[in-house]
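ok here's the first one, seq then struct tokens
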Amino acid sequence: MKKVSFEEFGGPDVLRLVDAEEPHAGPGRIRIAVRAAGVNPVDWRVREGQVLGAHPVVLPAGVGLDAAGVVDEVGEGVTGVEVGDRVFGEGVDTYAEFAVLGAWARMPEGLTFEEAAGYPSVVETALRIIREVGVLRGQTLLVSGASGGVGSAVLQIARERGIRVVGTAGAANQDYLRDLGALATTYGEGWVERVRRLGDVDAALDLAGSGVIRELVELTGSPERVVTIADLGAPEFGVRFSGVAGSVPAALAEAVDLISRGKLHIPVEKSYSLAEAAAAHSDSQAGHTRGRRVIVV
């Protein structure tokens, strides 16, 4: 089978499309014929060799956590899913023709494989950081870097829970944030005052890692009211870095519910082939994403 792999840490150019042995579904796992794989910032952070405790890497290594596809192997002890089912979920080395998943759910009706591949880690992360930052119904949540996949999910989930949301993004994505129910403003010089003009902020999430932790603490009044998924230096300010996943099966179940009720939709901004994985990583690292980027197999 074809698989994206890297033999050394580095930039996007270390990624190679190689021939590899097919993986197989062990106990409690399923294997899918991958139709699409989500491109997440954690993918290129791991490729760069950043120290992420939840994702130890042994070289050579594959790439990717999220995927959608068709079940073609069911491991021992697995129930409720059969060969031929269309599923999406989280596993390992998903930039490949076949991948093993440890958490999955049946795809909601009407969702394409490309769309489905963009949800698993994104929704788990959004649910986790909303919980960790402790924002409640009727309060205001500031989301820095709000137009990407996690930001798109956070805005919609927070609004569904009765939380007022303020999002920062580039000028081209202001209408997109407003369409998701957020009060929108641009980042860049003067952004703190622009946020203040929109009202008091009870909690804040940093999704972009753009060096704004100090300002987020200032706006919320306490480092305990700020959580980041992108700035590894945040603990120096007393701010939590959230990088360890919670229950992915529970997150997938909630994603299915929200999608089925029309309360969650994350658009696919661009699709890439396996051979274009390096370009996908370059584009992801450049930021300014609206929704998700995915690899189509």
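and now the second one, same deal
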Amino acid sequence: MNTMTLWHLSPAEFAALAFAALLVGFSKTAVSGANTVSLAIFAAVLPARASTGVLLPILIVGDVLAVLTYRRHAHWPTLWRLFPAVGAGVVFGTLFLMWADDQVVRTSIGAILLLMTAVTVWRRRTADQDDEPDSVTTRAGRVKARSYGVLGGFTTMVANAGGPVMSMYLLSAGFRKLGFLGTSAFFFLIVNVSKVPFSVGLGLIDGPSLLLDAALALFVVPGALLGKWAVHRINQRLFEQLVIAATVLGGLQLLLR
């Protein structure tokens, strides 16, 4: 029995998932947050809860490719500030998944994404644009890192939607393009790998889901290569606009589904 038959997928549905996997690769090496479109495609083709388990290994493949591409640009002080809060968010997200239905999950995350986008845009218009990423060492920076960390851990556990949350944090912290991509690459590789035991425990990752992942992972690579080619042709202002637009799109599609 092949993978498409196992999941009762039509050729068109498999093609949609393959495109979503390609978009994951592109988002990891070019426009972080754009994989909210992939999240929507997976949730439309597969059962909502099952889609999160299938998507997670695909994201990890993209994370590995992003780390290999941008490993020299990571800002580790920011990462160390984020991880404890993210861990708390992942635990909270796991508990939330035990009782929340799909509609509650979608509405909650969509509202969070849109709220944080609005806050980030407002902060960037009023803050000093010369702030450096090492502002995480200040009291205000630590509070912001913890707040975004908890929300990022929660949303990434519940719906693999942590990308837009962390995109908004890194933009608000003043990261430039390559620092943004390098820091987010390591962040999501570590966080997504840490989510695997929780997802297995919830029954979201199993043999059939891994078989589908094996078929789809091949499409992540060309997407990552396309992103690596495109990122050097996107200026900083356009990069930020694309990240914000992708976040708004992701929040709206979650609220309106």
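notes on #2: DSSP finds twelve helices and no strands in the chain. The CA atoms of residues 54 and 209 lie 5 Å apart.
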